[in-house]
Amino acid sequence: MARSHTAKLTISNFVNHESPVPAFMQVEQDLRRQILSGTIQSDVRLPRETELATLYGVSRMTVRRSLEGLETGGLIRRVHGVGTIATPPEVPVAVDLSSMISIAEQIRRQGHEPRTVIDVQTIATPTPLIRSALLLGDNDTATVVRRVRYSDARPILINTSWLPTKRFPGLDRAELLDGSLWKTLTTNFKVTPAATEEHFELVQASADEARLLHVEEGDTLIRVSGTTFDGDDHPVERCFSLWAGNVRFHFSSRKPRKTRVAAKPASPGKKPARKVAAASARAPRSSAGKSKR
Description:
The chain is of the alpha+beta class. It is 22% helix and 27% strand. The strands form three sheets. The protein has a seven-stranded antiparallel β-sheet with strand order 4-5-6-9-8-7-11. It starts with 22 loop residues before the first helix and ends in a 6-residue tail after the last strand.
């Protein structure tokens, strides 16, 4: 049951009408920040639309559009006769990056409904970095697929994948099976991922990324950059994954065991020879669970 008192808002920044970010988005981002940080607690009633409009110095229509975005993201609910109630997410989604289970299935097993929205699916000119990673020629193009992954109504991940157009003709027009890129590649192109190399880093959300993930511009995101290889060790995908802060990660890695070689007994009067193990100059790639994409 909703509490009887109304939240006391802390308006850190008034709406900047000269900003390229629309006013409704500025209001939405500020309210989202306060809900997710706990400044506005769960089940507390927000001020009325007219009061919010006065606090932020915007029209009531602008406030209404901001609240619609929060409601779509599952951060508020409207109760007849009570008002607008804050409903922050209680538990972050847990994702095991080393698991062979798809992200969608992991979300489903936690009692949430996974959903994928394809934002971009087209042929484009790759950057030098992507061209190098995929071993593309100077005139080769790549197919880029960008998807927003949801847990219920919350966006948690932006996947941007670059793939060689020559290797996957028609992928820019293909319907992704169950929203999974690798299920589509395995079924339609008979290509199965065998290994991957990935790098993790913290980045700040751009305005476009903030819009897609329902966060504020400049918020910290986790970016996973990786290259996926097929069974013949050919690079087939360069992927960039941006994870929102409402996700808890788990992953594991295993190093190959070193094989001990028994030393032969030394001949009488001779010193035993020293055996030097050769060190690999490249860390072994992890087993690719890329069917999860």
